[in-house]
Amino acid sequence: MSSCSSCSSGRKGGEGGVDAATAIQDQLISSTLGRIKYKLFIMSGKGGVGKSSVTVNTAAALAARGFKVGILDVDIHGPSVPNLLGLHATLEADERGGLINPAKCNENLYVVSMDSLLRDRDTAVLWRGPKKTAAIRQFVADVNWGDLDFLLIDSPPGTGDEHMTVLKTIPDALCVVVTTPQEISLADVRKAINFLQYAQANVLGVVENMSGLCCPHCGKEINLFKKGGGRELAEKYALPFLGAIPLDPATVVAADTGVPVVLLEGDSHAKQGFLALADNIAAAVGNSLEAISSSHA
Is Chloroplast one of the keywords (predicted)? Predict the structure, then answer.
């Protein structure tokens, strides 16, 4: 017991040093989040469903609508947001406040990602839970996000340390669950929804990505990987269905060139789907926060 006591006091620095540092960081986080109107946590229980693509294109669509938007990429081990945006800028210190400025994509869109901190982007990040938790908290506390209408948080697959840290750090985050129509994806997404229910998180709604294939030649829709599974999932859990994004060759071209499909010249089925999704989310967030506020009154 004596050794435990001394160990505990040592961690607190005798005068509560660690606790004091955490309290200061909590204040910084609270101050930062207070200047961000809506926080959207994009997640799914399964990898490969296009969370990052949905995050980037929704953010770009909202920015194109005139909103001030930030993207926080908390996929520590496999960040892809900078590549999808063709962003090579690194994070730089703000000389005025000692904070870090997010990388600027355009006048309305800003990004923070682990990828922007690596000298060599092919370097693997070998971090365990506590270090990932600390990094995510720093991405909020030590970044000069400024006044934003939306902060979109892109997550890794699963329901692990990153997800629990985000929900604890940003308790008013509105979760957007991404799935594809197939049962193999829906099975994992059901687990993710169960996780969110257990965590008493606020779920904004469900997005069905890769919803059918639009032929680039005739425009006819082909149910290559089924269609409608996401809508059925939303109905089963009484969640809003925010939209369906079809498979579209334009999305592949956009990802490889580092330009969101919603910013490509010309029209495409995926572009229309993402613009509609952004409009649906912009319409849904106000109602969702009003419901949350009334339920906690």
Answer: no
52 is in an annotated binding site: yes
CATH of the domain at 165: 3.40.50.300
Mean pLDDT confidence for 22-30: 94
14 annotated among ligand-binding-site residues: no
Please say if the pLDDT value at position 291 is more than 60. no
Question: According to the annotation, is 17 in a ligand binding site?
Answer: no
Do the domain assignments include residue 221?
yes
Q: What pLDDT is recorded for position 68? A: 98
50 annotated binding-site participant: yes
Tally the domains of the chain: 1
According to the annotation, is 51 in a ligand binding site?
Answer: yes
13 is in an annotated binding site: no
Tens digits of residue pLDDT in 9-18? 444 444 555 6
Cβ atoms within 10 Å, residue 130: 9
Average model confidence (pLDDT) across the chain: 86
The residue with greater pLDDT, 158 or 108, is 108
For residue 290, what are the domain limits? 19-295
Q: Is residue 10 part of a domain?
A: no
